């Protein structure tokens, strides 16, 4: 580096300038820290160039940072700013649609349906979900005990759009966990919502019922639906929060079959691909859609289907 007598910042009188960022910057910052005021300025400046043989464009990103927080990792901030500015310049000058291109690449890489709602749900799962004993995934901070209604509304719109072509006349879910996604879906599809109870209510005289095994509580349960709520003419869409073993969804499909109605699909928020849920439902020959697919919770680390797909980009 070389001594610099002038700089734009009023906080810096003398300093060092480096053209390349690396470990040498971190070493000199650490050496200067004991002899500097915490607010001594460090400036990171990045330049991005575009040249296609005819057009030449430059964009810059700049960051002034107190030396106490300084380090080579701060380079990513002005670099990100320069890249974003260049993308906007290219879009205006050359009509390049970067976000549209990136979205198509993500769709191809993940081998499935990608959406804003899916990306938001994916981020919440990675940031907040926890793996409990018996590979149970705790999502109580945003879709169970504490519900992010805006996120559920967006996911409901996403799933509703996928099933609109099968023309469901009713949605059938399980109380209470399935209601967080079933209610917004029913709103967007403009169809009634029926939910199966796990215990008989005093108002339920004649019911369809089907047993299933609950992994969450580790015991067999019963699902009950009033016979007044499903007719032979109905086209029923099964909706739930999780698809794991497929036991509860299969129970609902058996209820639909017993009622003489037609099942038109199964939609869930989260699918555990490492369990046999999708396979267990394959005999019913209905489309199965999920917003986010989880491929592993090995050693307590949640890995999503998209994580594998991005390696193909």
- The secondary structure category is alpha/beta
End-to-end C-alpha gap:
38 Å
Helix and strand element order? EEHEEHHHEEHEHEEEEHEHEEH
* Rg over C-alpha atoms, rounded to the nearest angstrom: 27 Å
Number of helices: 9
Strand content: 25-35%
Record the strand order, biggest sheet.
8-7-11-12-13-14
Q: What kind of sheet is the major sheet?
A: 6 strands, mixed
Task: Please identify the oligomeric state.
Answer: single chain
Compute the number of strand runs.
14
Helix content: 25-40%
Q: Sum up the overall morphology in one term.
A: elongated
Average pLDDT confidence is: 85
Low-confidence stretches: 1-12, 307-313
Describe the structure.
The chain is an alpha/beta fold and 313 residues long. Helix content is 33%, strand content 28%. It has nine helices and 14 strands. Helix 4 (116-128) packs across helix 5 (149-163) and helix 5 (149-163) crosses helix 6 (179-189). The two termini are 38 Å apart. The relative contact order is 0.10.
Write the layout of secondary structure elements.
Layout: E1 2-3, E2 16-17, H1 23-32, E3 41-51, E4 56-66, H2 76-94, H3 98-110, H4 116-128, E5 130-132, E6 136-138, H5 149-163, E7 170-174, H6 179-189, E8 193-196, E9 207-214, E10 219-226, E11 235-243, H7 247-258, E12 262-272, H8 277-281, E13 288-296, E14 303-304, H9 305-309
Parallel strand pairs: 7-8, 7-11, 11-12, 12-13
Antiparallel strand pairs: 1-2, 3-4, 5-6, 9-10, 13-14
Helix pairs in contact: 4-5, 5-6
